[in-house]
Design a protein that fits this description.
Layout: H1 2-23, H2 28-45, H3 52-63, H4 65-76, H5 81-107, H6 113-138, H7 150-165, H8 171-201
Length: 207
C-alpha cells in the first residue's frame, strides 16, 4: 500500500540526489548491489549476534539505497530489464538475510523456538508474496495488491527489532507474528486477484 501512496512523494524528494549521482557517473546497478551487500553484512553481523538496535540503524541506511537507485536510474534515463531484475533479486537477498539472521539468533543464543518459527515463516511468506507477483506478471497480469508489500514488511520488522534493541519487551515477538499474519493475508489477496484477472482473460467472447 505504501508503494501506491508514497511512491510519487519519495521519487520527488530523491530526484536531486539522483541527478547529482548521475552527474558523478554512478551506476544505478552499483548502488543496488552496494545496498544489498551492506544490508546482508549488517544483518549477519548485528542481528545474528542479537545487537538489534545498531543493526536496525545500519540496515535501514542500506535499505534506503533501494530508493536511491530508482532515482538515479530515472535521472540517467537508463532503466533496463536487467536493472529491474537485478533490483528485485537483490531485494529478495536482503529480505532473506534479515529474517535468516533473526532465525539464526533465535535458534542459538536467543533460544526461542517460537520466534525461530516466526522468523522462518516470515522468510518463507516474504518470498512467496514476491513469487506470486512475479509469476502473475510473467503471465501478463498485474498483481499490485496486498496489505503487506515489501515496504510494509520492512517497516514492521525493523521497528520491531529497533524497539527490542532499546529494551521494549515483547515488541519483536509481536512484530514477527503480525508480519506472519499480514504476509499470509497478502499471499491470499494476490492469488485471488490473479484468479480474478485470469477469469476475465479466459472468458469466452460474447455471441
Amino acid at each position: 500500500m505504501l508503494n501506491i501512496f508514497a511512491r510519487a512523494s519519495v521519487a520527488k524528494a530523491l530526484q536531486p540526489l539522483g541527478e547529482r549521482l548521475a552527474r558523478a557517473g554512478v551506476s544505478p546497478n552499483a548502488v543496488t548491489v552496494a545496498g544489498t551487500v551492506g544490508a546482508v553484512a549488517a544483518a549477519v553481523a548485528f542481528f545474528g549476534r542479537g545487537q538489534f538496535f545498531l543493526g536496525t540503524v545500519v540496515i535501514t541506511i542500506f535499505v534506503l539505497f533501494d530508493l536511491v537507485d530508482g532515482a538515479l536510474a530515472r535521472a540517467r534515463g537508463t532503466s533496463s530489464p536487467f536493472g529491474a531484475v537485478l533490483d528485485s533479486t537483490c531485494d529478495r537477498i536482503a529480505d532473506a538475510a534479515i529474517f535468516g539472521a533473526l532465525a539464526w539468533w533465535f535458534a542459538g543464543t536467543g533460544d526461542s523456538p517460537a520466534l525461530l518459527l516466526a522468523a522462518l515463516l516470515c522468510l518463507a511468506l516474504s518470498s512467496l508474496t514476491s513469487y506470486v507477483k512475479a509469476r502473475a506478471e510473467g503471465a501478463g497480469l498485474r498483481c499490485d495488491v496486498g496489505i503487506a508489500e515489501r515496504a510494509e514488511r520492512l517497516i514492521i520488522v525493523l521497528v520491531g527489532t529497533g524497539l527490542d534493541g532499546l529494551g521494549v519487551p515483547f515488541v519483536l515477538a509481536a512484530a514477527l507474528w503480525l508480519l506472519v499474519a499480514a504476509s499470509a493475508v497478502t499471499v491470499i489477496q494476490r492469488v485471488l486477484e490473479v484468479r480474478r484477472q485470469a477469469a476475465l482473460v479466459t472468458q469466452p467472447p460474447p455471441r
